[in-house]
Structure formats: C-alpha cells, structure tokens
Design brief:
about 140 residues; alpha+beta; Thiol Ester Dehydrase, Chain A; six-stranded antiparallel β-sheet; 2 helices; about 15% helix; globular
Amino acid sequence: MLLVDRVLHWESQSNIMVEKRVDGEDPTILNHLIGGPRLMPGAMMIEMVGQAALLLEQLSKYDASPNLISPSPPVGPILFKVLARCKAKFIRPVYAGDTLIADVHRIGAAVGGTLHSGRLLVRQDLVAEVEVMALDFVHRSGES
C-alpha cells in the first residue's frame, strides 16, 4: 500500500516532504474503528514516514545521475532497504478527509543503515513524531 501521493520538497541526502490525502473509503480506515470515527491508524502514519525515508534514500542515490528514470544497472549484489525499527509519539488523531504532510529528515548513518525522523502535520498542526531505521540488505545472486 503506497502512502505517498505526492512529493512536495526534496533535498538530496537531507530531507523530503510528502503528502497523503486520507481517504475515508480506504478499507484500512473503514475497518479501523468499526462504528466509530474514520481515523488513520498509527501504524499507517509510521509506515508513511518509513516510505518517505526510503524514497529519500532512493532519490539520493540518483542525485548525480542526469537520468533519474534509468540509471546504470547495478553491478554485483543487489542492495535494498527495509524498515527495521520505529519509535512514535502520537499527539492527535488524523481523520478521513485530512491531508497529511510528512516532513522527514535523515538524521545520519548507523551500523547497517540510516536513521530518519519525521514530523506529521495536518494544516500545520503537529499530529505525530516518528523515528525510523532503514536497514541495508544485500541479496547476492544464487542465494534465496
């Protein structure tokens, strides 16, 4: 499930700001609190920051390339990132119909990955703060 509708701002190796319109007809939101208000689950907010962090890392790889669509193919082991750890502080709910902005910054490198912090905003009001760790995984051909 993609939780980024649009990139609003990007600075290579530094930060990215993304947007997501919270759709009240999304099954995850419809089934979150059956009979209650249509809220975006906290896990989806964490995932949105994680997806923005991974997007920042991916875009930053190609920053020096004049062709963002088809950079040169990877040589050797294939490296990819996965979210490994998160920490979140939820301040207020995010309702269906809200437009959620994630302002994500790369804090720095850690052993085997990168650490990112994100602030989630609705109409410039802080709704959550999230930290995520993106770990590097290497897949070598012939391994399963």
